[in-house]
Specification:
alpha/beta; binds magnesium ion; 6-stranded mixed sheet; binds inosinic acid; 3 helices
């Protein structure tokens, strides 16, 4: 049997997102910003972050697969859904749920940088720095967390638990 232990409450998440929204506003005074959501885990973070910002933003989605059904990365990254727009000359903030090994984001950043955006920044709600295999420069971090498997607020385990309001540790 597995159980859930709240690590970050819905209230803490919302308060931190307001702060990150203000930081992104401050860094992009010229607007508009393209917020690129990495499906599916970052969907709730994207929705709340976009509404925490005062600068005009546009939202786009990109699909990447790396994890499959397990708790550790397969190490393989694949683009499963590309952007519907060209981003050349635009300010971009990639919106991610969690940076773990860094494999996903280092791959995606390479792909997006080739498309010559005006600027390219990363916002992640969670960061597990202990497990980093590839260096990634993250501009906005919600919370640094220890090396534990978490679910909720978009994060899943084999597609379950995404819709929890809190971020919880999934314990066996
Ligand atoms: P990375 O490529 O190892 O940095 O993995 C990033 C992706 O793995 C994230 O976008 C998540 O989808 C998934 N992931 C990493 N750690 C967790 C976790 O603790 N819970 C749920 N998904 C995770
Ligand atoms: Mg993800």
């Amino acid at each position: 049997m597995s159980s859930l232990r709240v690590l970050i409450s819905a209230e803490q998440i919302q308060a931190r997102i307001q702060e990150i929204g203000a930081e992104i506003d401050r860094d992009h005074p010229e607007g508009p910003v393209y917020l690129i959501c990495i499906l599916k885990g970052a969907c709730f973070f994207l929705a709340d972050l976009a509404r925490a910002m005062k600068m005009p933003s546009r939202i786009e989605f990109i699909g990447i697969s790396s994890y499959g059904r397990g708790k550790t990365s397969s190490g393989e990254v694949k683009l499963t859904k590309d952007l519907d727009v060209t981003i050349e000359g635009y300010s971009i903030v990639v919106v991610e749920d969690i940076v773990d090994s860094g494999v996903t984001l280092s791959y995606l950043l390479k792909v997006l940088a080739q498309r010559k955006p005006k600027s390219l920044r990363i916002a992640t709600l969670l960061d597990k720095p202990e497990r980093r295999q590839r260096p990634v420069d993250v501009d906005y971090v919600g919370f640094k967390i220890p090396d534990e498997f978490v679910v909720g607020y978009g994060l899943d385990y084999a597609e379950d638990y995404r819709c929890l309001k809190d971020i919880c540790v999934l314990e066996e």
